[in-house]
Amino acid sequence: MTTAAELQTVLTVPARFRGPEGSANGGWIAGTVSEALHGARHDSAVEVTLHAPTPLDTELSLRHLANTTTLTDGERLLVEAITVTEEFDVPAFVPFNEAARAEGGFAGLVEHAFPGCFACGMRDPGDGLRIFPGPVSGTGLIAAGWRVPMTVTDEDGAVPDAIVWAALDCPTGWAHFQPGEFALLGRLTARLHRRIYPGGTYSVVARASGREGRKLFGESAIYETDGTLVAAAKAVWIAPA
C-alpha cells in the first residue's frame, strides 16, 4: 500500500543499459535511482547500494519516501539510495591526450568478462560509452579519454545523471581487474559538480583504494580538459567467491 507521503512510479530498464548480460549496468541504475531521489539538484552526494542485480525489460517499482529511494521487483529489494555527507579523495587529473593513450593498455581488450557492458564494453560507437581505462605509467592510476556520444542527451541537451554515474562506475573496478577478471558493483557513492555535454571530451580517471576479503574498493573522477572536476565517486565491488 502506498501512503500519502510516498511517491511510487514504474521503471523499466532498456536492454541498451545492460552491464552483465541480463541485468542493468550498476552505475546506470545507481544514477537513475539517485536522480529519482535528488531530482536535478547536485548539492550533496548520494550513496546507492545494489542489493541484487536489476533485471532488464521488467516493470519495477521505484519508491521515494523522505530521504530514501528504493527500487524493487515485487517484494525483492534491488537498489536503495540515500543522501550522505561525503568527502571524496579524488584521483588526480590526467590530461585528455594522456588518458586517451592509456586506453591501449585496457585489460578488457585482452579478455572482457562483460563485453556487452554499456559503459566499458565493446559496443558500437554511439551505442555504448566505450570507456576503456588503461594504466597511466608511474602514477598508480588508470584513465580513459571519454568522447561523449551525441546519442546520450536529455531534454536540456546535457547528459543525464545516469550516464555520468555509468562512466564513474566501471573504471573503479578496472583499477583492480586483470584480463578476464570481474566483480559486481555493491555500492557506489557519487557527487556531480557540473553538467556533461554530448560531443565533449573528458578524462575519466580511477584508482584502486584497497581490498578486504571479497570487497574491492575504488575511486574515480571525471575532469574537463582544463582539469576542472566534473564528478567524483567511490565504489565497493564484490568479487566472486
UniProtKB/TrEMBL annotation:
Identify the InterPro entries for this entry. Answer: HotDog_dom_sf
Q: Which SUPFAM superfamilies match?
A: Thioesterase/thiol ester dehydrase-isomerase
From which domain of life does this come? Bacteria
What the entry lists under Gene3D superfamilies is as follows: Hotdog Thioesterase
The protein here is known as: Thioesterase family protein
Give the species.
Streptosporangium amethystogenes subsp. fukuiense
